[in-house]
Amino acid sequence: MRHVIDAHFDLLLDVAVQREHGKRNVIVSDYLPGFVAGGVHTIVAAIYIDNKFLPEMGLRKALQQISALHAEAHESPDKIMVCKSVDDIENAKKAGKVGFILSLEGAEPLYNDLSMLRIFYELGVRFMGLVWSRRNFVGDGSHFSPVREGKKGGITEFGVRLVEEAEAMGMIIDVSHLNDEGFWDVIEIAKKPIIASHSNCRSLADSMRNLTDEQIKAIASTNGVIGINGVNIFVADNDDESDLEHLLNHVDHITSLVGVEHVGIGLDIIEPFMKYDSPDAIAQASRKDFDVVKGHIQVPEIARALAKRGYTEEAIELIMGKNFIRVYKRSLEIREKLD
Fold this sequence. Notes:
Elements lengths: L4 E5 L1 H10 L5 H12 L4 E6 L10 H18 L4 E3 L3 H9 L3 E8 L10 H7 L2 E5 L27 H13 L2 E3 L5 H10 L5 E2 L16 H9 L3 E4 L3 H4 L8 H15 L4 E3 L13 H6 L14 H10 L4 H26 L1
Parallel strand pairs: 1-2, 2-4, 3-4, 4-5, 5-6, 7-8, 8-9
C-alpha cells in the first residue's frame, strides 16, 4: 500500500482563524474527508505568517498555529495525530490516522534569536523553511514576479548558524522560496539531505520560485527530494497549459535529470485560503492563482496519470511518498536516537 505524503499544505492558517471564531474539529470537518478520499496519509503542515503580522506578531501567530494543530489532535485522537518522528508517521498510517508534521515556512517567528529554535523543535517542528518570498534575518526570498528592489543577498551569519543548528537538532532544511544566492550557500553549508518541499522546474515554467536544472542536480547530490507544486503559475507560463499533464512534465524533467528517487509531491493547495488574500495583493498579481490539482481528493489522479506515462508501480510509490520517507529517516534519525 502506498504511503502518500503531501510535503506542503498551509491549512494551519485557516484552522487557527476558525478556532479563534469558536469552531472546533476544523480538520476533521473541513479537510479530513478529502485526505481520506484521496488516500493521503501524511501532511506537512506549514506555519506561514502573513506580512501584516510581521515583525511584532510573528512568534505569537506561529505558536497559535502550532497550538491549533495540537488542540485538533487532542479533540480527535482517533482520526489525526501530530508526528514528531518517522515512527510516528508510520504508526499513524498503520492506525488509520492522518499524520501531521510541522514545518516553519520562513524563519520569521525566530526573529534573530537562535534559542527559539529548540522551543519549536520540542513543539514538533521538523522542517526549517528558511524564508518565504521576502527578506528575513536568514536571507532573501524569491519573489513570485519581479519587484523593484536593491541587491539580493545570500545566507547571513545568523542563517549559517540556523542551518547548522537545525540539522544538528534533527530538522530538515527546506529551500523552497529561497533566492538563488541563498540556495547555493545552503548547498555549501548543509551536511544532510535538503528538500525543496514545493517547487517546480524553471526550464518549464519561468518563475524565480522554481528550480534551475543545476539546482535540481544539487539537491539530488545531497540525496534530497523536490516536491512538485500544483499552483498554476509554477506549472506553466500561461494558464491554458496549467493542467495536470503539464504538472507531470515537471516530474518527467526531474526524473530525466537526476532520477525518480528525487521527486515527490508538495502540492501547495491554495484555493481554500484565497479568502485571506488582501485586495491589494490580488490586484497586483500578474495572473490569478488556481490549483491544478483541485484538492487532496484528486491526488489519486496523479498516480493514474503517472501510470499512463509508463511509470512503474515502484516508481509511483517513490514519488507519492517513499522518497520523502527516505529523507526523513536519514535526517531525523540523529535526534530520534537521542530521545
